[in-house]
Amino acid sequence: MINEEKMTFTIPNEQGIPTEYTILFSFISGKTNKHYMVYTDNTLDVDGSLKVQSCIIHEATDSIEPVTTGEEMQLIQEKLIEYQKELAKMN
């Protein structure tokens, strides 16, 4: 599923069209013991910000599922903010 050399993967988008996504980062939460991945299709929203999505990774079955709880979304949002701060330090 994941091309580790390019850090990309391809899955159908919301319209069912196979789309390549770039992995921004992934992490395992100590709170939930789940493996999360944050990724993008490298498109921008109306404000000019990069569109970012997230999912839960199930490595044993090589599958992903959507993040559905507010608690998990908050956890991912916090990690995304940390990621953005780290990127800003590098630039």
Q: How many domain units?
A: 1
Structural class: alpha+beta
Mean model confidence by pLDDT: 91
Largest sheet geometry: 6 strands, antiparallel
Give the overall shape.
globular
Order of helices and strands: EEEEEEH
**Beta-strand share of residues:** 35-45%
Percentage of residues in helical conformation:
10-25%
How many β-strand stretches?
6
- How many individual helices? 1
Radius of gyration: 14 Å
- Sheet with the most strands: spatial strand order: 1-2-3-4-5-6
Distance between the termini: 31 Å
| Poorly predicted tracts of residues | none
SSE blueprint and pairings:
Blueprint lengths: L1 E2 L4 E5 L5 E11 L6 E6 L12 E6 L4 E4 L3 H21 L1
Antiparallel strand pairs: 1-2, 2-3, 3-4, 4-5, 5-6
Structure in words:
The protein has 91 residues and is of the alpha+beta class. It has one domain (2-90). The chain is 23% helix and 37% strand. The chain contains one helix and six strands, in the order E-E-E-E-E-E-H. It has one helix at 70-90; strands at residues 2-3, 8-12, 18-28, 35-40, 53-58, 63-66. A six-stranded antiparallel β-sheet has the order 1-2-3-4-5-6, with helices on one face. The mean pLDDT is 91.
Please summarize what this structure is:
The chain has 91 residues and is of the alpha+beta class. It is built from one helix and six strands.
